[in-house]
């Protein structure tokens, strides 16, 4: 009788332990590239991602390269601020409210998924796409992180211009991404040329509207256009939120 009771207790404990583990909040890494659309992370995309992640119960850890920015842009003029230099990690701390770690500390063992907001920082500080186009390279630590999460079969999310990073690093794996839509003459898709670059890098591209998401189940990659489209703040926020929901759904699956 004692043995039966002991076995039953063990079974109950095992069920409770397994249920508690399954309910544990996922940890998602957000890789920032500075602060400001023209020389760092697009602040509204980053904010939308952080809001959506914590609203869904995820724990968030922000990371960024500890390196100089390509340059500093005066956002009131849209031109470089001569003789001014800034650090990507230091500037990213503005968005992360100080809670940001060097990207060298990010591995697939420290998070269940990783998300890259857009902004020109992805094309200037995480890569040199802004100046080299199809001849671009991705900085070594970002390439390592993407390959690490991909190899571990953990979800990766990218929005705006950041999917070009996935195209470069995972193009050989047949990754499918969206960078928005082709130029239709409306002026709403000013960065449509990036689509052809992504194709040249080996990626499959899918045209999506600002409120749509592309999900590559095979590679566990989620992408959306965000400010590749000249939209309103709420449109971008809603699109990024859908991307985060899809990313979190991949963790659960």
List keywords for this structure.
single chain; 253 residues; alpha/beta; seven-stranded mixed β-sheet; two-stranded antiparallel ribbon; 9 helices; globular; disordered N terminus
The DSSP helix count reads 9
Give the overall silhouette: globular
Strand arrangement in the largest pleated sheet: 5-2-1-6-7-11-10
Helix content: 25-40%
**Total strands:** 11
- State the order of secondary-structure elements, H for helix, E for strand: HEHEEEHEEHHHEHEHEEEH
Q: What percent strand?
A: 5-15%
Radius of gyration: 20 Å
Q: What distance separates the N and C termini?
A: 41 Å
Characterize the quaternary organization of these chains: single chain
| Major sheet description | 7 strands, mixed
Structure class: alpha/beta
> Runs with pLDDT <50, length 5+?
1-10, 12-22
Mean pLDDT: 92
Describe this structure in words.
The longest helix has 21 residues, at 2-22. Helix 2 crosses helix 9 (233-252). The chain contains nine helices and eleven strands. With 253 residues, it is of the alpha/beta class. Helices cover 39% and strands 15% of the residues. The radius of gyration is 20 Å and the shape is globular.
């Amino acid at each position: 009788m004692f043995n039966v009771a002991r076995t039953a207790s063990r079974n109950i404990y095992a069920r409770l332990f397994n249920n508690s583990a399954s309910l544990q909040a996922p940890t998602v890494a957000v890789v920032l590239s500075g602060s400001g659309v023209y020389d760092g992370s697009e602040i509204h995309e980053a904010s939308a991602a952080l809001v959506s992640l914590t609203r869904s119960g995820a724990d968030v850890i922000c990371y960024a390269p500890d390196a100089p920015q390509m340059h500093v842009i005066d956002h009131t003029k849209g031109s470089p601020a001569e003789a001014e230099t800034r650090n990507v990690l230091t500037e990213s701390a503005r968005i992360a409210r100080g809670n940001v770690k060097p990207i060298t500390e990010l591995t697939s063992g420290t998070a269940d998924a990783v998300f890259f907001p857009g902004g020109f920082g992805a094309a200037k500080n995480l890569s040199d796409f802004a100046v080299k186009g199809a001849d671009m390279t991705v900085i070594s630590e970002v390439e390592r992180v993407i390959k690490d999460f991909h190899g571990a079969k953990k979800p990766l999310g990218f929005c705006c211009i950041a999917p070009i990073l996935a195209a470069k690093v995972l193009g050989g794996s047949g990754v499918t991404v969206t960078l928005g839509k082709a130029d239709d003459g409306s002026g709403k898709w000013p960065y449509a040329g990036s689509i052809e670059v992504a194709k040249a890098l080996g990626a499959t591209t899918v045209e999506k509207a600002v409120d749509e998401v592309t999900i590559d189940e095979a590679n566990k990659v989620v992408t959306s256009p965000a400010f590749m489209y000249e939209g309103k703040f709420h449109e971008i926020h809603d699109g990024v939120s859908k991307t985060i929901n899809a990313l979190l759904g991949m963790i659960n699956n």
